[in-house]
Amino acid sequence: MQIAVIGGGINGLCCAWKMAQAGHRVSLFERGQLMQGTSSASSKLLHGGLRYLETGQIRLVREALKERDHWLARAPHLAHPLPILLPIYRSSRRPRWLLGLGLATYDLLAGHSSLPKSSWLSAKETIAKAPQLKSDGLMGGYLFHDGQMDDRELGLWVARQCRESGVDLQEDSPVEQVSTDGEIHFADRQTEAFDRVINVAGPWAGQLLNRSSIPAAHALDPVRGSHLVVDRPCGHALLLEVPADNRVFFMLPWKQKTLIGTTEVRQSLDEPIACSEAEIDYLIEACNRYCSQPLQHHEVLSTFAGLRPLLHSTGNASRASREYAIQTNNKLLTVFGGKWTTAMALAQRVSSSIH
After folding, report:
1. Residue 116's domain is classified under what CATH number?
2. Total number of domains constituting the chain
3. Is 236 in the same domain as 310?
4. Same domain, 183 and 281
5. Which of 92, 162, 290, 300 has the most CB atoms lying inside 10 A of its own CB?
6. How far apart are alpha carbons 204 and 212 in whole angstroms?
7. For residues 19 and 4, is the Cβ–Cβ distance under 8 A?
8. Is the peptide bond before 263 cis (omega within 30 degrees of 0)?
9. 212 with 259, same domain?
């Protein structure tokens, strides 16, 4: 079959690669440059989503843990295991027993993973690993493992695998409309027809259907996730509670600096995708509840933000589903949602839907 993929983020690239491996002739169209949008503005983690257990997303966590291990094995030059500390204070909102149960479930869902299982550390052991933490009220912490990656470089590595598999990758090729009979209408060239069209445009997948007068079976919540890169080394990766609400955030080592994130702010597709001053203040305030040496605004070297295409499921963005869904309209298939870590699993499901 001649197949078109719309969207050059990680989900689109993985779909194109998987379908080329299945023997299809694949062309991918990206409105800008490959891996320049949401897919290169992640928290740089390959993870199962420990916090998704709180909202009962068991299937997704199991799939993501399996895919986490596959990425670590598939591209060890761009991804590596990352030990993460989850410190527990007397003031912590989640008790030790609950976090221990969550991590035991996480380990169980990971199956026969090559990564170590979680373990409990005393307060003294926790401070020895993460001296940046305040010690007052510290009860100890759980040590668990996920993966860290260079998201943009790993995505571009997937793009190279696409090219080697025969995929025609076309950048600067914005798609104006699609049709259910396999036609793609471009802004600056003639319409092209394909046996199948895969709309994997991330946050803009629903917008493309709307422009094409095709009803969408699922609604997307565009949610901005912002991050800070600060000018200090990170003694140890940390998963921490946000004191002001029920969210969590990360402090991670990143290129000899510290990466802090993320936020969850709903916004429209026509707003600029950029970290706001309020988000900077939010993340710094959260960090300073834990840092023995308070973080100052002048230490923020840079910020970045991405727009996540979350399935609309709740009024609270932090509790929105991270699952993905697929809509089929004759020769057109549209992907709603999707996570970085599960991009290959999504691609396999899309490939299996092509007949």
Report:
1. 3.30.9.10
2. 2
3. yes
4. no
5. 162
6. 12
7. no
8. no
9. no
Q: How far is CA 246 from CA 78, 225, 297, in A?
A: 32, 16, 24
| Helix boundaries (H) for 27-150 | 58-74, 96-110, 123-129
Could you tell me which residues come within 8 angstroms of residue 354 by beta carbon, excluding any fewer than 6 positions away?
Answer: 1, 3, 19, 22, 24, 196, 333
DSSP 114-146: SSPPPEEEEHHHHHHH-TTB--TTEEEEEEEEE
Domain that includes residue 157, residue range: 2-39+152-219+321-353
Per the listing, tokens 């990564």 go with: 115
User: What whole-number distance in Å separates Cα of residue 106 and Cα of residue 261?
Assistant: 22
Residue linked to tokens 């190279």: 160
Using DSSP's 3-state secondary structure scheme, residue 164 falls into: helix
* Encoded amino acid at 147, one letter: G
- Six-digit token string for 17: 């690669």
CA distance 140 to 151: 31
Q: State how beta strands 300-311 and 324-329 pair.
A: unpaired
Which pair of tokens denotes residue 64? Answer: 């993501």
Cβ neighbour number for residue 271 with a 10 Å cutoff: 12
Composition of the chain by helix, strand, coil, percent to 5: 30, 30, 35
Give the C-alpha separation, 233 to 258, whole Å. 6
Q: Is 57 contained in some domain?
A: no
Distance of CA 8 to the CA centre of its chain: 15
Same domain, 161 and 293: no
Assigned domain for 85 exists? yes
- 0.70 exceeded by pTM: yes
Q: Within this chain, do residues 234 and 312 fall inside the same structural domain, yes or no? A: yes
In a domain, residue 72? The reply is: no
DSSP codes joined into one string, 243-302: TTSS-EEEEEEETTEEEEE---EE--TTS-----HHHHHHHHHHHHTTBSS---GGGEEE
Please tell me whether residues 173 and 314 are part of one structural domain.
no
End-to-end CA distance of the chain: 9
pLDDT tens for 288-308 read 999 999 999 999 999 999 998
Q: How do strand 220-230 and strand 257-261 relate by DSSP bridges? A: antiparallel
